[in-house]
Specification:
166 residues; mainly alpha; 7 helices; 81% helix; elongated
Length: 166
């Protein structure tokens, strides 16, 4: 039963919005790029920035805003899972001191060395963003190429569906 509920959710929240965009004339190519860019922005390690960043990038590159937000918000859980991965990769790449993951250790650093801790936190975040940018440059075109055939298939099926008046 849960599988049927999930498929209904995916149909309502993913497939139907994409079909609506195809109906109003968005091309599969444009939608694939819009979703891909929204998705890679959706996993960036600057928590809380994805919606505005996806809106800005979609506007600058004339992408479909709805599709970019769809890609962005679908990957929100992955953003939370990848956040520590980007931080750790940034630490390894830039040879930054390790992140104090212990609660007591982090509280001690914030309490007794607030300025140094703030600078260190910003360097971890900055380095994680560099790692994410490299990943995004590689993943976005690959994701676009994966999505495009499916969107073209959806468009082809859409043209062969009978017109139903509401």
């Amino acid at each position: 039963m849960a599988g049927l509920e999930q498929s209904g959710f995916v149909r309502r929240r993913v497939v139907e919005p994409l079909l609506q965009l195809l109906r109003i004339g968005a091309t599969p190519h444009q939608l694939a790029w819009s979703i891909a860019i929204g998705a890679v922005i959706g996993i960036n390690p600057l928590l809380g920035s994805t919606t505005l960043l996806a809106l800005a990038v979609a506007s600058v590159f004339r992408l479909n805003v709805v599709a970019s937000q769809l890609g962005n918000h679908l990957l929100y859980p992955l953003e939370l899972l990848l956040f520590p991965v980007f931080i750790r990769l940034g630490i390894m790449l830039f040879h930054t001191p390790r992140l104090p993951l212990e609660h007591k250790e982090l509280l001690h650093a914030v309490k007794f060395h607030p300025w140094d801790t703030t600078r260190l936190l910003w360097s971890w975040e900055w380095h994680a963003l560099v790692v994410w940018a490299v990943v995004a440059v590689v993943v976005a075109p690959v994701l676009q190429r994966i999505l495009r055939p499916g969107l073209e298939h959806m468009l082809d099926r859409l043209h062969h569906e009978p017109v139903v008046e509401k």
